[in-house]
Design goal:
Shape of chain A: elongated
Number of helices of chain B: 4
Radius of gyration of chain B: 18 Å
Oligomer: heterodimer
Strand order of the largest sheet of chain B: 1-2
Order of helices and strands of chain B: HHHEEH
Structural class of chain A: mainly alpha
Radius of gyration of chain A: 32 Å
Largest sheet of chain A: 2 strands, antiparallel
Shape of chain B: elongated
Number of strands of chain B: 2
Largest sheet of chain B: 2 strands, antiparallel
Strand order of the largest sheet of chain A: 1-2
Distance between the termini of chain B: 19 Å
Helix content of chain A: over 70%
Helix content of chain B: 55-70%
Number of domains of chain B: 1
Strand content of chain B: under 5%
Largest interface: A-B, 42 and 48 residues
Order of helices and strands of chain A: HHEEHHHHHHHHHHHHHHHHHHHHHHHHHH
Number of strands of chain A: 2
Structural class of chain B: mainly alpha
């Protein structure tokens, strides 16, 4: 085990950062931004230091009773994904200071700037936790945390209905499928007896599939890709961070982390899925008019590449690809944001020829687009070289598919850049503020530096894979990779030149698939659920009594089933002794109270009748020599009477309420049925000798010292903690509902 | 409400709180527990609310602190589960532990389980009183 500091220090800094930004940031947007940038910079620096000293490992016995430990390690994979998340995070946060101010000012929400930075930093922390987690449970926790924070970030413009809806779609797809990951974790735990990934030798295929689905959803892979284009309503820095480097990377990270223990067939399935995503994403990117939608399509496609590389078993190449893509794509997203800031346009059809107005941005963005397209002299060249190298072993079909994929990549990268910066000038751009340009320049310089020496990504990706540094270099000869790259560039240029002619056809295809595709299916599902909920609400929530009937009738049916199948169990009346007479009298009183409860027409009378039942039962406990239970029952009964009266008195009288119509008869039938079957069940249970229950043991252990208190505090102490929490929450919600009701009534 | 009821409630209120405290501290050895203690306190407070009406009741008792009381109670309850779990790995373990000398304060055995019971009492009393207070204000007497 390595030393704990290199892994603990970045995690601790990342964890403190959001808190610090939240507290300091209230002073104003500038303070929030300054804090956030410094926090991100420190996190990145500490993480870099941790990686340079060789990483480390830290474990803490978390739930020793179940053998669960919190284990974090800064290994090769963690170092690469962590550095990418922290590095891009730093650049994006630096960018978002000015951006978010301009974004929030016209909406009158400038006070929320610190919330934005806090959420970005929280996301960074979640990504670092995910990257370093060495335990399946932690992996799941951080995986879900990223989904939750992404929801808050995508729906950051919460006054906008579309933003809320898109955030919810992303949450439902990514966190909803995250439940499958929890199932996979539990299953793997039962199967292997440990949650530590390094100790698991192989995952059963079913578990692997359960873990695969959330990973695909998170990385926006077909058929769960549709949330990503919709998530583009988010502020641009969110897209630049989450949808290029962080959130979507979490999915393939999960697969990389589990790669050694994934079974072969599941890995093989990744290849066709990846190519499908390349196709679908490529088509979206080739036709989309809105900048960010184009980039979203390209993200889907690019993570398809990563999926293919993982399927081919090359974790090192996949990790390298993620790093190279993150740099290029976040730069392009930020470009889109800056262009929108400078011109007010969001779509390619509204801009053109901006290279003259924004020369610096155009140059930096050109490098980024070249990086995405895989042109030489940028880091991106190596990602395509690795891709071709990995495919070459798989025969001709793979190579052809690979070249076709890269051709589309080249074409949409060219389309994005040329569409914005070349051609006739449609609209003059205002001068772009430096703070919205220099982060892009920085990313472009990194891409160029990477094109020269690989930017350390080689060694990192190598450590993420088998441990050997990737061999990357320019070879000026006619090897296969070079030929394929040349073919790609030629094909890409051709496709780009001919795009205008074939674009209507592709657009038709995209619209057609959109009409029957998974996104549509998802919408249909959501609509159906909403409709069902509305139906249930109409049937069930509006009136209390039919609702009770709806729960009682199925219960009665279940009891009837049990009754008729278990008839032979026997019913015994037993003997009535003299000492039992007071008890019997009490029971008769309670029964009378119960009948009065259901037959009275006044709410207050109903509460009083219910109280009669409760107090009689409390008295019966006293008669049965259980004064402690009687005390608690009487106290509960008193409190409930007061509470119920407090709720019932302000209600409008019954005649003023919505009439139940046909329901009274239904209610009567339900009551009789439920009562009858409850009677039968109780009778049957009492006919049997008292079974050995834990309750008897409790009474014996308590030795007459207040069995209720003993159970609450000692035997079931942990349950009490949970119950107290639930009690506090429900009381708080009741109080809140009452306040809300009062506010509504006050309104004219 | 009548003057008689008001004076009776005034007389009963503090003794009820004493009873509640007794329930709370006797919890692990005798009858009663934190839950009952909270209920007794809630009932006593609701009597004050009933007898004096919400506006005057708020002048007599610090009712606005009810949510905070419930919150602190919840912290105590969750804390007494979590803190020992962090220290020893056993949730809800109380100090001093069974095998050590019992610390006595008069007739009372001092143990950290008292905090747990007090927490439950605070959640129950604070929560119920807060809801009743809301309900009383909704009635329109004090809108």
């Amino acid at each position: 085990m390595g030393s704990p500091l290199p892994v603990l220090a970045p995690l601790a800094v990342a964890l403190v950062s959001p808190l610090l930004t939240w507290t300091v940031g209230r002073a104003g947007p500038r303070a929030a931004h300054l804090t956030a940038v410094s926090c991100a910079a420190i996190t990145f620096a500490v993480l870099l230091w941790g990686c340079l000293v060789g990483g480390g490992e830290w474990a803490w016995s978390w739930v020793p009773a179940w053998g669960i430990e919190a284990r974090f390690a800064l290994d090769g994979l963690a170092a690469l994904y962590g550095l990418v998340a922290a590095g891009i995070g730093l650049v994006v946060i630096a960018y978002s200071g000015r951006y978010i101010e301009d974004h929030l000012r016209p909406r009158g929400r400038l006070g929320e700037a610190h919330r934005f930075h806090t959420l970005l930093l929280l996301f960074l922390a979640a990504m670092l936790g995910l990257a370093t987690a060495q335990d399946l449970l932690l992996l799941f926790l951080f995986f879900d945390l990223t989904a939750l924070v992404s929801y808050l970030l995508i729906a950051f413009d919460h006054e906008d209905e579309e933003a809320r809806r898109s955030g919810l779609t992303a949450l439902l797809v990514t966190a909803g499928s995250g439940v499958l990951l929890l199932a996979a974790v539990a299953w793997a735990w039962l199967d292997a007896g440990t949650l530590r990934i390094a100790r698991i030798t192989a995952l059963p295929p079913a578990v692997a599939v359960l873990a695969l689905i959330p990973a695909l959803a998170k990385s926006a892979q077909v058929p769960l890709h549709f949330w990503l284009p919709r998530a583009m309503v988010a502020p641009t820095p969110v897209s630049a961070y989450l949808h290029s480097a962080a959130m979507v990377a979490a999915g393939v990270f999960l697969l990389s982390r589990l790669h050694p223990i994934l079974p072969g067939p599941v890995l093989d399935a990744l290849i066709p899925l990846g190519f499908l995503s390349i196709l679908v994403g490529g088509l979206i990117a080739l036709t989309a008019d809105v900048f960010k939608r184009l980039l979203a399509g390209s993200t889907i496609a690019q993570y398809g590449y990563v999926l293919v590389l993982l399927g081919l078993g090359d974790v090192a190449a996949a990790s390298f690809f993620v790093g190279a893509h993150a740099l290029a794509k976040s730069a392009l997203f930020l470009t889109a944001g800056t262009v929108t800031e400078a011109t007010g346009e969001r779509a390619l059809s509204g801009v053109g020829g901006l290279a003259r107005d924004l020369p610096t941005l155009a140059a930096a963005s050109l490098v980024a687009a070249a990086g995405l397209a895989g042109l030489p002299l940028t880091l991106g060249f190596f990602k395509d070289e690795l891709f071709f190298g990995a495919l070459a072993d798989r025969g001709t079909w793979a190579v052809v598919l690979g070249v076709a994929s890269s051709v589309t990549t080249f074409a949409y990268a060219a389309r994005f850049w040329a569409g914005i910066f070349l051609g006739p000038r449609r609209r003059r751009a205002a001068c772009a503020p430096t703070s919205l340009v220099f982060p892009i320049v920085l990313l472009a310089l990194l891409l160029l530096a990477g094109g020269w020496n690989g930017l350390g990504l080689r060694a990192l990706a190598g450590r993420a894979g088998e441990g050997e540094a990737l061999e990357l270099a320019y070879h000026l000869d006619l090897r296969l990779e070079n030929l394929l790259a040349l073919a790609t560039f030629a094909g890409g240029l051709l496709l780009f030149a001919g795009l205008r002619r074939i674009r209507p056809a592709i657009e038709g295809l995209v619209t057609a698939t959109g009409r029957i595709g998974p996104g549509r299916l998802f919408d249909l599902l959501v609509t159906l659920v909403e409709r069902a909920a509305r139906l249930l609400h109409r049937l069930d929530v509006r009136l209390l009594r039919p609702r009770l009937a709806h729960t009682l009738i199925p219960t009665a049916a279940l009891v009837a089933l049990a009754f008729f199948t278990q008839w032979q169990a026997g019913f015994d009346t037993g003997q009535v002794l003299r000492a039992d007479i007071p008890v019997l009298v009490g029971l008769v009183v309670a029964a009378g109270g119960a009948i009065a409860t259901i037959s009275t027409s006044s709410d207050t009378a109903m509460v009083m009748a219910l109280t009669v039942v409760g107090f009689t039962l409390a008295a019966l406990f006293a008669l049965l020599r259980a004064p402690d239970v009687a005390l608690v029952a009487a106290l509960v009964e008193t409190t409930f009477t007061i509470l119920l009266l407090a709720f019932v008195v302000p209600l409008p009288s019954k005649s003023e309420r919505v009439a139940g119509g046909r329901t009274p008869r239904l209610v009567a039938i339900a009551s009789v049925l439920a009562a009858g079957f409850a009677f039968v069940v109780t009778w049957e249970m009492l006919s049997r000798p008292i079974p050995e229950t834990v309750a008897a043991r409790y009474v014996e252990l308590a030795r007459g010292e207040g069995v209720v208190g003993k159970i609450l505090a000692d035997y079931r102490g942990l349950d009490t903690v949970g119950e107290t929490t639930v009690l506090a929450l429900s009381l708080a919600s009741v109080a809140m509902l009452m306040t809300a009701g009062r506010a509504r009534r006050r309104r004219p | 409400m009548s003057l008689l009821a008001q004076s009776v409630v005034r007389l009963l209120f503090l003794p009820s709180l004493v009873v509640a405290t007794a329930f709370c501290v006797r919890g692990s050895t005798g009858m009663g527990d934190g839950f009952s203690a909270g209920l007794v306190a809630a009932i006593a407070t609701s009597l004050v609310l009933l007898a004096f009406g919400p506006r005057q009741a708020r002048r007599i008792l610090p009712l606005r602190h009810a949510p905070a009381t419930a919150g602190i109670g919840l912290l105590l309850v969750v804390g007494s589960a979590v803190v020992p779990a962090l220290v020893h790995g056993i949730p809800l373990e109380h100090f001093p532990r069974v095998e050590f000398q019992v610390v006595r304060l008069g007739a009372l055995a001092v143990n950290s389980s008292l905090l747990f019971d007090a927490g439950i009492a605070a959640v129950v009393a604070g929560g119920v009183v807060h809801v009743l207070d809301r309900a009383a204000s909704t009635d329109g007497q004090d809108a």
